[in-house]
Design goal:
mainly alpha, Cytochrome c oxidase subunit 2A, single chain, about 0% strand, 1 helix
């Protein structure tokens, strides 16, 4: 007899929310790194 767990759909929903938060955090971190690189490059070009 096959038994299904009633919490399977809830777990998938929780995992999806967790991944969305991770994606947002990685995007923010990438944006900060890009801004830092552009700022350093701009300062370098200004002094050269």
């Amino acid at each position: 007899m096959i038994q299904t767990k009633p919490n399977d759909s809830h777990k998938e929903l929780h995992d999806e929310k967790s991944l969305k938060g991770t994606l947002f955090s990685v995007g923010v971190l990438a944006a900060v790194i890009v801004v830092m690189w552009v700022t350093v490059f701009w300062i370098y070009m200004d002094r050269v």
